[in-house]
């Protein structure tokens, strides 16, 4: 029976960490790698039986790979602090443990809650994520944003969902956009990307239309409209920050 180390990276996740840890009763170890929380994240995690380690922030992929290296077992189940496994996913993992693994990694469908509503369209569902993998056959990749697991071998699907609790308010969403567009712009500078004035002008409205109509955000009601609008805002802010960095010469090595 393969043993699993569940890993979570955290910083000031006291509002979420208990929910995530309680959903990981299918794992044999829960490891929380914290990067300097000033709230009760570490205390709560320890009280719920998790092993906790403090490690300075290295970036999303690097921090998650650090957690993988520090885990006690070779099979890794990676969860973000604002996520949880639903009961079907936990059952699927328990059943998976009853026989030798066949592939290098396994993926789950991820379902997001936005402004209190589960989103079923808008390009947000099903949001397939590799989260269970053998650490000798897979790794986290991504410099600044959009980190993901890259597997050196076949990937299969397990049942159930990862439930992702995203933004509770538009202000929260705007703050996240500011944070992630800063990282995205820096990544583009490091790659030497250039964006034409025409693209800066046309990309945001195209992203809105694509999200709201072609990805059926219209079927998600008001949250779908807001997701499309915020997707356009993300692109607009990313390109604006890219232009600022290129003009000032910042973000270069």
Element layout with pairings:
Elements: E1 4-10, H1 17-22, E2 29-34, H2 41-47, E3 51-54, H3 60-70, E4 75-78, E5 83-85, H4 87-96, E6 105-114, E7 117-119, E8 129-134, E9 138-141, E10 148-151, E11 155-165, H5 170-191, H6 197-214, H7 221-248
Parallel strand pairs: 1-2, 1-4, 2-3, 6-11
Antiparallel strand pairs: 4-8, 5-11, 6-7, 6-8, 9-10
Helix pairs in contact: 5-7, 6-7
What labels would you give this structure?
single chain; 253 residues; nine-stranded mixed beta sheet; two-stranded antiparallel sheet; 7 helices
Architecture overview:
The protein is an alpha/beta fold and 253 residues long. The protein is 40% helix and 25% strand. The chain has 7 helices and 11 strands. The strands form 2 sheets. Strands 1, 2, 3, 4, 5, 6, 7, 8 and 11 form a 9-stranded mixed sheet that branches. Helix 5 runs parallel beside helix 7 and helix 6 packs antiparallel against helix 7. The chain is globular.
């Amino acid at each position: 029976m393969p043993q699993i180390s569940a890993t979570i990276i955290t910083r000031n996740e006291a509002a979420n960490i208990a929910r995530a840890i309680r959903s990981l009763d299918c794992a044999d170890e829960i490891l929380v790698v914290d990067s300097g929380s000033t709230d009760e994240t570490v205390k709560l995690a320890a009280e719920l039986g998790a092993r906790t380690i403090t490690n300075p922030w290295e970036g999303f992929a690097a921090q998650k790979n650090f957690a993988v290296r520090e885990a006690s077992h070779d099979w890794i189940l990676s969860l973000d602090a604002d996520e949880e496994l639903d009961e079907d996913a936990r059952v699927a993992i328990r059943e998976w443990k009853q026989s030798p693994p066949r592939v290098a990694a396994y993926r789950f469908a991820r379902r997001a809650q936005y402004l209190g509503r589960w989103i079923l369209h808008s390009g947000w569902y099903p949001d397939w994520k590799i989260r269970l993998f053998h650490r000798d056959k897979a790794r986290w990749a991504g410099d600044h944003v959009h980190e993901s697991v890259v597997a050196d071998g076949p990937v299969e699907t397990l049942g159930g969902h990862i439930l992702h609790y995203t933004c509770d308010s538009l202000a929260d969403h705007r703050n996240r956009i500011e944070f992630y567009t800063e990282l995205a712009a820096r990544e583009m500078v490091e790659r030497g990307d250039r964006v034409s004035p025409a693209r800066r002008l046309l990309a945001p409205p195209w992203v809105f239309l694509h999200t709201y109509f072609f990805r059926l955000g219209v079927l998600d009601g008001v949250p779908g409209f807001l997701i499309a609008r915020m997707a356009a805002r993300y692109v607009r802010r990313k390109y604006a920050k890219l232009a600022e960095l290129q003009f000032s010469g910042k973000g270069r090595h």
